[in-house]
What we know:
InterPro entries: ARM-like, ARM-type_fold, EVH1_PP4R3, P4R3-like_central_dom, PH-like_dom_sf, PP4R3-like
Number of helices: 37
Strand content: 5-15%
Number of strands: 10
Pfam families: EVH1_PP4R3, PP4R3
Family: Belongs to the SMEK family.
GO cellular component, one term: protein phosphatase 4 complex
Helix content: 55-70%
Structural class: alpha+beta
Strand order of the largest sheet: 4-5-3-2-1-8-7-6
GO molecular function: protein phosphatase activator activity
Distance between the termini: 85 Å
Largest sheet: 8 strands, antiparallel
Amino acid sequence: MTDTRRRVKVYTLNEDRQWDDRGTGHVSSGYVERLKGMSLLVRAESDGEWSPSRRDRGALEPPAAPGPGRAVGRARRAGEGSLLLESKINPNTAYQKQQDTLIVWSEAENYDLALSFQEKAGCDEIWEKICQVQGKDPSVDITQDLVDESEEERFDDMSSPGLELPSCELSRLEEIAELVASSLPSPLRREKLALALENEGYIKKLLELFHVCEDLENIEGLHHLYEIIKGIFLLNRTALFEVMFSEECIMDVIGCLEYDPALSQPRKHREFLTKTAKFKEVIPISDPELKQKIHQTYRVQYIQDMVLPTPSVFEENMLSTLHSFIFFNKVEIVGMLQEDEKFLTDLFAQLTDEATDEEKRQELVNFLKEFCAFSQTLQPQNRDAFFKTLSNMGILPALEVILGMDDTQVRSAATDIFSYLVEYNPSMVREFVMQEAQQNDDDILLINLIIEHMICDTDPELGGAVQLMGLLRTLVDPENMLATANKTEKTEFLGFFYKHCMHVLTAPLLANTTEDKPSKDDFQTAQLLALVLELLTFCVEHHTYHIKNYIINKDILRRVLVLMASKHAFLALCALRFKRKIIGLKDEFYNRYIMKSFLFEPVVKAFLNNGSRYNLMNSAIIEMFEFIRVEDIKSLTAHVIENYWKALEDVDYVQTFKGLKLRFEQQRERQDNPKLDSMRSILRNHRYRRDARTLEDEEEMWFNTDEDDVEDGEAVVSPSDKTKNDDDIMDPIIKENEEKEVLLKTNLSGRQSPSFKLSLSSGTKTNLTSQSPTTNLPGSPGSPGSPGSPGSPGSVPKNTSQTAAITTKGGLVGLVDYPDDDEDDDEDEDKEDTLPLSKKAKFESS
């Protein structure tokens, strides 16, 4: 059996900083004569590639590499029994153990390696070998501390006052490159190298040599200069960056970075920056310092993004100062532009001027978009001041003008600017549009322009419409609306939105649903309607009476359910989700609207048309009916069974519809037999809610009962005996009910006509009284003095009849006898109402 402990996958990091799988094999360690030292060897499996299990795959994700070392090794492509890896364990290489099954290190610059073990034991074994060669404790997770140097190095650094650089000559470029490379692993040496480069003006001398090498076409010297300049970047010093990025040096620095030894031909970055990239001043900038800062930031950003090679994870941290340099430059540019009032005034004046030509306006909008993008680098308080300045300058009226133009590129840029404003301060936008509504017609309101652009998006994938829908959702989200002592933004804005804007949003929906099926059912229209439904569903969930009034008055749900007939499943599901959200609110206003308009019909029709296919439509519809059953929404249960049972009775692969039918039958039974229902409720209360206090009260009442009240020949029943008799009383009732249910099921055919009338009025109470026609015997379920009747002191008068009163709310009687907490209050009320008046008096007096 193959030893799985040393089974590994070999990974290498590519130029895109993605880990490549080089193959699977078995790792070992041993002395390699050719490499003159202990080495790691990985031989490919002879039986083909290893396909790890799910558990193994979780541990075999390629990790982030720690840092570069100077080991000698190479990873090869897998071949049967071939050598995948041969790597010398160098004493100075930083090996790192991660996640118990990973060992990561760097072989050379931009060449990172990882071994991913199948088992932790194998990883620990190889890790001990590496630590043994390097003289480290195996308990550490990284073999080289990149911050602290050895005592010898520290002594050398303390004894030498500074680092002496070789003279800046062509013949010594290789020596300089080696010195820079050897200083990078040590923080103290990096510090000394940086100070030496600053003090001696060394960078400018190196750039002079660059011109000499280019003139002489000295490719070897240019390659050395590339390594030197790249190493200076990794020193991570702001003072050096200021020299390198100065107006006189930056283009030469870019020139040095064109000669990457790994490339057969040098890049042409300088040619691109000087000839292709053009600086456009859409508004003349009078401040030369600002202009120079913009040029510098663009070029440094270009160096970071395009010129420098992809850094390893180790080197990425060394470029943090470069990121900071660009960041603070952008902050300075935004601040200087913000302070230039003349510049901003001219900008907005030209944006809104009808005489401005289209090309110029496009440049102005693009500039403003980039300006807003730069502002994202500001601190929160500075960003507040920035957007306040733009607001005072009239950015929202300007955007309104721009969004009304025909140029799609200009409108797209204006949409991006609008998104910055909405994400930063939606209340500012809401306040503007509400003030605007007092002066302008609905057609030219800013929000209506946004909705129209969403509806009229020409992109087949509706990319712009999706972005605009997200902005609209942010604007109508009550979660980010303010409430002050004087006014409530939610009330004011939602009132405005439903009065002035909602009809624009629903226009495509209403126009497309005038018939029994969508009048236009192409893909783009379906996508648009799906976006509209998504926003309406959001409104149902987060708005209250505004959306409720709108849906009921405009008959929106009926129009939405027309889309259930769409050939696009995603649109039909959007319509179903809209209805499901409404039903989920369990609001009787919505329920009465659904029943009155028979709005389950499109859903049932879609369910039947879907047939026996087990898909999302099938599951979603069943889930909706299951929700109605589980939540016991009585009105909808009765409506569905009365009107659609015949169509649904044959569905037997789920019990949802049969469960709904059972709910309905229980409800009808309770309405037809109020006396029985009351008795069951009383017995249930007596059985499930007896505690010590109840027993004490009953015993006290029993002992306080006058002997004159007890007639001759009657048995006096103690409270303990009453609890024993409960089960005896319930048994015939339960059996009788079971027989009725079986009888109903066997005789059930077709649509059932309910034996009761639904009352849709809420808040009313109806008392149903039934007079017992026969004499109740002691111990019978209906007798007020029976052991099952709470409040009975134990004596049962003969030949008494009982008047049972059942109180129902909303004209509906509860359907199911479940001991739920939410029925406790009603049960207490039933319990009290079923007592004779004389007994009530005794309870009250006690």
